[in-house]
Design a protein that fits this description.
Number of domains: 3
Order of helices and strands: EEEEEEEEEEHHEHEEEEEEEEHEHEH
Structural class: alpha+beta
Strand order of the largest sheet: 13-19-16-18-14-15
Largest sheet: 6 strands, mixed
Number of strands: 21
Helix content: 25-40%
């Protein structure tokens, strides 16, 4: 480490204000009082987003320019606030003194985020004010701090542009495939006339580590379990999601399912192919999102799925389309792999730059 980068406690260069939540009776969504933030839900890329809740009774205040840290799982993420706000128990405000530049401290906390959150994927349930104050930070001369901030601002802006382009290309690849699904012609039929729909019986927490069978919940991730309730080919449709971003999977074999996962089996495979239905369900996900009901969690009712209209050409045309779609899907997946690699590389570059910055290597 550079000789000018001797560590000191964060509490010696900044004031830490632990959040405290007002009683719920003071909350409103009409803009009355101060904006109220409970945790990192509204965190943006750098500055916290627009409020959804206000409070007429103020407990702990974050001032414009304060760094906000998430202190309940996930622990460690940071953002700035650009306005006066009330902070709840899921946040702490960090207010720098004149010995340390707030942007410099923000970047330094970003570099420490993984360490604050724990090692090997472990995440502490919370971090308190004393633990934040005890975090070790480096405080070189203020001119050196500002040089580092300038370099990181420029590098992070370039990385953000590169990430935006990669994410746009990723979306374009998906949209290319989805647009092909709308080109298929055929008669419109209600799905319920051709399939049997059941649900799993288990809670989502029934999953085990290294289980013998796949366990399908409403997550995009496939979990494992030691018992099976189904032994068949099926389409698995997530029946609930916080924001209505449902997902669909195609599987054949022994498996189990969560009680809000729809297990869809075909009655006559000479009229409807499983893989063709899988693609039709992908096409329908946006419609399901529009139809879903519920406030805190969006969910699908059985009738919505039964009454879904799918495009159903002849079985010969389904087979022809499947060859075309499977080839196109392979191309899209290859592109997605490339773009995801780019996004991972950009995230790794940010971590490398932060490591160099706070070990004194960036400005040597």
């Amino acid at each position: 480490m550079n000789a000018g980068y001797k560590p000191c406690s964060l509490g010696s260069v900044a004031k830490v204000i632990a959040g405290q939540s007002p009683e719920g009776k003071y909350y409103n969504d009409k803009g009355e009082g101060l904006p109220f933030y409970q945790g990192k839900k509204e965190f943006g890329e750098r500055v916290i987003g627009e409020p959804t809740t206000w409070t007429t009774y103020v407990t702990k205040i974050g001032e414009p320019g304060d760094i906000l840290m998430s202190v309940r799982a996930p622990v460690g993420p940071v953002n700035f606030t650009d306005q006066k706000i009330c902070i709840g128990r899921g946040l702490a405000a960090i207010r720098t003194n004149d010995t340390i530049d707030s942007d410099f401290l923000y970047y330094q906390l970003l570099s420490k985020q993984d360490g604050i959150a724990g090692t090997e994927g472990a995440v502490f349930a919370s971090i308190n004010k004393a633990a934040i104050e005890a975090l070790q930070v480096v405080v070189p001369a203020i001119e050196e701090q500002r040089r580092i901030v300038t370099l990181l601002d420029e590098a992070f802006a370039d990385i953000a542009t590169a990430k935006a382009n990669a994410e746009k290309n990723l979306r374009n690849a998906r949209e290319l495939f989805e647009s092909a699904l709308y080109l298929i012609e055929g008669k419109k039929e209600q799905l319920g006339e051709y399939v049997t729909i059941k649900t799993g019986k288990l809670d989502a927490n029934a999953a085990v580590v290294d289980g013998e069978y796949p366990f399908f919940t409403c997550s995009r991730e496939i979990f494992e379990i030691d018992t099976f309730a189904f032994d068949c080919e099926a389409i698995l449709l997530a029946g609930n999601n916080a924001v209505g971003d449902f997902n669909v999977k195609h599987y054949s074999g022994k498996f189990n399912a969560y009680q809000r996962t729809y297990v869809i089996t075909i009655q006559d495979e000479e009229k409807l192919r499983y893989r063709y239905l899988y693609f039709q369900m992908i096409k329908s996900l946006k419609k399901f999102k529009e139809q879903s009901v519920g406030s805190s969690t969006k969910f699908l009712k059985l009738g919505m799925i039964k009454e879904l209209e799918i495009t159903l050409p002849s079985i010969q045309e389904q087979d022809r389309q499947l060859k075309l779609l499977s080839g196109l899907l392979k191309q899209v997946e290859d592109l997605e792999f490339i773009y995801r690699q780019k996004l991972t590389a950009l995230d790794d570059l940010k971590k490398s730059l932060l490591h160099q910055a706070f070990s004194g290597q960036l400005t040597q």
